[in-house]
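Help needed: design a sequence for this.
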């Protein structure tokens, strides 16, 4: 169960980084 939780957090982290990159590109 702990491994699944970590994987979910990692997935959310990756999506968050992608959204930040999209926002930065939009502002530039």
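Sure. Designed sequence:
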């Amino acid at each position: 169960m702990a491994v699944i939780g970590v994987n979910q957090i990692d997935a959310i982290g990756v999506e968050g980084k992608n959204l930040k990159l999209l926002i930065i590109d939009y502002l530039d």
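The two ends are 41 Å apart (CA to CA).
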